[in-house]
Amino acid sequence: MSNSTSVDFYGWEVSYDDDHHLTAEQEPTAGRIYTMYHGASVNNARSIIRNGFNQSRDGMLGPGVYISRDQKKADRYPINNPPTDRVSLKLKVDVGKVKKIDTDNNAMQKTWHSNGYDTAWVPPNCGMKAVPSGLEEDCVWDPKRIEVIDIARAPSDAIKNELQALITQTRSLKNTTSQQNNQSGTTLWVAKCNFLNTLPLDCKMEHSEAGNLKSHIEYK
Q1: Which family is this sequence assigned to (predicted)?
Q2: Of 11, 41, 79, 174, which one's alpha carbon is 20 to 30 angstroms from that of 211?
């Protein structure tokens, strides 16, 4: 039987077990929601807001979306871009099940997802040579777990205002699409009958979807 203890470490409320992995407390069951950050160029920030994140092909922790709970980490990226072309996106992230990676050449450094984890987590100042900055880093496998909610940093107020307006516009469009999809799934069956001396002579069942007649079945 596994012995486990709950601890609070760098903001994560986690449980350590005999396998030395950590699992985010799940409330709801999909996992906890955390605020994180991602650094991008201005053009890439526009694309991410409009279309969502794409999974990177590879990296220190394998494929996934690289983000951090430490905004200072995001503010450094893209490393080769000048400060005038760096944006830090503020994110809402459902981390799911988290694997702690805190040593170089960890056995699960790039295979954590195939072992049932949703996010890989590199704690701050863990001593890994691959993270010389010592800043916390996360890799989320599924981009759908991540939502852009604000702009934490931008080169200018004009760019920040533009990107914030784009977030609002994209969110509104998604909400409208979701409402339309919900409405299109509404199905109604309506019976229309002719009567003779209060007895139904014949009936027609009309099938409508989202208020539009799709088909009908007649009973006589």
Answers
A1: Belongs to the ARTD/PARP family.
A2: 174
Phi-psi region of 161 (alpha: psi -120 to 50; beta: other; left: phi over 0): alpha
Taking Cα atoms as reference points, which of 14, 13, 21 lies closest to residue 117? Answer: 21
Instruction: Show the tokens assigned to 98.
Output: 């988290």
The side-by-side arrangement of strands in the sheet containing 33-40 is: 33-40, 87-94, 146-153
Domains of the chain (ranges, CATH numbers):
5-181 (3.90.228), 187-219 (no CATH)
pTM for this predicted structure: 0.69
pLDDT in tens, 52-104: 999 998 999 999 999 999 999 999 999 999 999 999 999 999 999 999 999 99
* Cα 161 from Cα 51, distance rounded (Å): 19
**Among 153, 101, 93, 99, which residue's Cα sits nearest to residue 122?**
101
Half-sphere exposure (CA, 13 Å, Cβ side) for 35?
9
Give φ, ψ of 73 to 5 degrees.
-65, -50
Pull the structure tokens for residue 9: 């470490």
